[in-house]
Design goal:
Strand content: 15-25%
Order of helices and strands: HHEEEEEEHHEH
CATH architecture: 2-Layer Sandwich
Number of domains: 1
Helix content: 25-40%
Distance between the termini: 31 Å
CATH topology: Dihydrodipicolinate Reductase, domain 2
Largest sheet: 4 strands, antiparallel
Number of strands: 7
Radius of gyration: 18 Å
Length: 195
């Protein structure tokens, strides 16, 4: 993610920005796609543009899984001097490489217009070219229709939503592990937070 969010006044009071506000969604997505990682290594520094004290403006983290999978993310809320007169390179992109193919996407957020459609292209061994489905939706704000709709249905029917609060606690534990990793300058096992 290379985007310049607008920070809320309550964030200045709490003293944190990227990990608990932006990265939390990316960490949750990794957990949804691949399950719980074994550990996380996180390095972070303040965003030079944000004027209130914080430590987590630019975050880089690696999720390590027991089966050898590695997820690497950079969540950068600085993105260079884009607001100070330099051309901007803003967006949220992802890439998944596997033994039999790859998928590459763009969330369509942080663009002009604000709700640009998200994009995806993927290919597997034996494909002559990338497959490129198209849709009009963008991850933000369209993703809320599914998750919030599911929550409202769960409340109405008294059932558990597919992504429930108890599961979200594991994402919060992963965020806490990222902060601890940055503070201690070492990998932190998820079990150090959850046990």
């Amino acid at each position: 993610m290379r985007g310049i969010p607008h920070w809320m006044p309550w964030q200045a009071e709490l003293g944190w920005v990227t990990l608990r506000v932006m990265s939390i969604h990316h960490l949750d997505c990794f957990r949804y796609w691949f399950g719980d990682p074994r550990e996380i290594y996180c390095s972070m520094r303040p965003d030079p543009r944000t004027t209130f004290p914080h430590t987590d403006g630019i975050c880089t983290y690696i999720l390590e899984y027991a089966d050898g999978l590695r997820c690497v993310a950079i969540d950068d809320t600085w993105t260079g001097p884009a607001k100070e007169g330099c051309p901007a390179d803003i967006g949220i992109e992802w890439r998944i490489e596997g033994m039999n193919g790859l998928a590459i996407g763009d969330l369509g957020w942080c663009k002009d217009p604000y709700t640009s459609a998200s994009r995806l292209r993927y290919a597997a061994k034996g494909d002559e070219r990338f497959h490129q489905p198209e849709w009009d939706g963008s991850w933000f704000p369209d993703a809320f229709a599914g998750t919030m709709g599911q929550l409202l249905i769960a409340l109405e029917t008294g059932t558990e939503p597919a992504i429930g609060g108890r599961d979200n606690l594991k994402t919060m534990a992963l965020v806490d592990a990222a902060y601890l990793s940055a503070e201690k300058k070492r990998s932190v096992k998820l079990s150090e937070i959850t046990d």
